[in-house]
Specification:
The protein has 154 residues and is an alpha/beta fold. Helix content is 31%, strand content 18%. A 7-stranded parallel β-sheet has the order 3-2-1-6-4-7-5. β1, α1 and β2 form a beta-alpha-beta unit. The longest helix has 15 residues. The chain is globular, with a radius of gyration of 14 Å.
């Protein structure tokens, strides 16, 4: 099983879409606070449709508590500030895919706490800033799952 972690997400529909995604690919979702919204927010629930009960979602008040809970797992930073393309990574069951907030990405201190070889990017056209968060999560998470032959899926 893989894990998706969102660092201080700000846009409820993105998180709702990711809840739906993780319900469908069997990943665990970890929300690292502070969040930019209330989990009961209507836009979040609408985007996640009726998948909230099917998803495994954990919440942490801060990054330090999240890291403590992930002890022994490899944390991979998914960021535009990486040199390695995500498709070059050999993913391992239990990996944590960490994504930054929609407005500011991962802070430099968090990024610096992760080894360079564990930082991944999605290739894009030059001079573009980033992809939508839920799209980026979908791209990388499905590559990780594909490498495991979609284990557990139908």
């Amino acid at each position: 099983m893989f894990h998706i972690a969102l660092f201080e997400p700000q846009v409820p529909p993105n998180t709702g879409n990711i809840i739906r995604l993780t319900a469908n690919n069997g990943f665990c979702l970890h929300l690292i606070g502070p969040l930019g919204f209330d989990l009961a927010e209507k836009n979040l629930r609408r985007a996640g449709l009726d998948y909230h009960d099917l998803a495994k979602v954990s919440q942490y008040p801060n990054y330090f508590e999240f890291v403590a809970a992930m002890q022994g797992r490899r944390i991979l930073a998914c960021t535009t500030k990486a040199n390695q393309s995500y498709d070059k990574m050999i993913f391992q069951t239990g990996d944590v895919l960490l994504f930054g907030s929609e407005t500011s990405g991962l802070p430099i201190d968090v990024l610096n706490s992760i080894a360079r070889e564990h930082r991944l990017r999605i290739p894009m056209m030059p001079n573009n800033r980033s992809l939508n968060l839920s799209n980026a999560v979908a791209i990388i998470s499905y590559e990780a799952w594909r490498q495991q032959a979609f284990y557990g899926g139908a």
